[in-house]
Design brief:
Length: about 325
């Protein structure tokens, strides 16, 4: 089979290679991958950003893939050839609270990912694809969709009448916007571009703020949320956004600490966090059941994830460059022939 292999650290060292076809062992499933999607974390993994825990030599990158079952190993009853499936980000975290053992393996980081034609999965680490989604659309979910679902619905339980703030137009932010709107919440969405803000409104955001033109956007968001503050911030900005996020959040509200596209270290105003009874909730993707729930929510509500662009497997480096540029609106995806 063909696989995109990182010969040494850096996206310039990605090579399309012929490698031996994998075979499913007991409890495993062989999947012909049809699509994959990229996340900001793949940029980190390509630079060795997961430290000593990461597989760096000959890594097959990317965590998120969807495809068709080709063959099942001994003892597998849940799947058969031809089933359309999506793989989990953490194949060993199936439900409930996480622990280190459940998070010890992740695709495209600690072990090989899905930028390839065939891959063996643990049978329990797969979820059935809804009929309403294409392979590319389904491949958008395992990291970004699950993270947004975990933050907005599973943890914060956002529902009608509540206010959610999202940051930018990356995969997590757009999934969070769509999930919050489907739950009946009001969404305030940030972006640096007027053009993207118009698209955010088309997607359902009732308010949009330009974080470059309004550096005090935390105060503006609080005002838009009736002076009380927002119930949930889906924090993907990190260093340059946390201070404003704290200003935007209502007393007793939640900041879902997810990402750091603007840097990994931020100052924290501790008295403000304490006196506002803020909850800063660290989110590490989510489990298998979150993946199933997020896929079902999109099918039931008749909505589709936002796909920015699709590249063939051999153009993975171009797809990486698109994510690096920050110009995307939604998910950058790979189609695997
Ligand atoms: N903890 C987890 O489980 C988890 C899971 C998934 C992702 N993440 C993290 O979440 C972050 C987002 O991931 P992603 O894949 O969705 O990223 P992405 O697609 O690369 O997001 C890029 C977006 O970030 C926005 N942005 C950049 N600087 C900003 C700022 N100062 N304020 C507000 N928005 C800003 C830009 O929005 P505009 O162009 O509109 O300005 C851009 O569209 C990354 O740090 C990623 O590592 C964490």
């Amino acid at each position: 089979m063909k696989a995109m292999v990182m010969e040494s650290l850096g996206s310039a060292n990605l090579r399309l290679k012929e490698v031996p076809d994998p075979k499913p062992g007991p409890g495993q499933v062989l999947v012909r991958l049809r699509a994959a999607s990229l996340n900001f974390r793949d940029l980190l993994a390509l630079e060795g950003g997961y430290g000593s825990r990461q597989k760096s030599a000959h890594l097959i990158p990317l965590s998120d893939g969807a495809g068709e079952v080709v063959e099942v190993g001994a003892g597998v009853r849940a799947w058969k050839a031809g089933d359309r499936v999506v793989g989990c980000f953490f194949p060993d975290w199936l439900s409930g609270p996480p622990n280190e053992a459940m998070m010890a393996r992740d695709l495209g980081g600690m072990e090989d990912g899905v930028a390839c034609e065939l891959r063996v999965f643990r049978a329990e680490g797969l979820v059935a694809m809804p009929k309403s989604l294409s392979f590319v659309e389904a491949a958008a979910f395992p990291c970004a969709g699950v993270t947004a679902w975990n933050a907005v619905r599973a943890d914060a339980g956002i529902g009608p009448g509540q206010v959610v703030l999202t940051q930018g137009c990356g995969g997590v932010a757009l999934f969070a916007l769509q999930i919050a709107r489907a739950a009946g919440a009001h969404v305030i969405a940030l972006s640096s571009s007027e053009q993207k803000m118009a698209r955010l409104r088309q997607l359902g955001a009732q308010d949009t703020l330009n974080y470059k033109e309004d550096p005090d956007w935390g105060k503006t968001a609080r005002k838009l949320a009736g002076q009380r503050g927002v119930d949930l911030v889906v924090e993907t900005g990190g260093a340059q956004t946390l201070k404003q996020s704290i200003r935007a959040t209502r007393m007793g509200g939640t900041i879902a600490m997810i990402g750091m596209v603007s840097g990994p270290t931020a100052e924290l105003n501790l008295p403000l966090v304490a006196m506002s009874s803020l909850r800063i909730h660290g989110v590490a993707v989510g489990h298998r059941d979150h993946l199933a729930q997020s896929l079902a929510a999109f099918e039931t509500n008749g909505i589709k994830p936002v796909i920015d662009s699709t590249y063939p497997l051999e153009a993975l480096a171009e797809a990486v460059a698109q994510v690096k540029s920050g110009k995307q609106f939604g998910k950058v995806c790979i189609e695997i022939a």
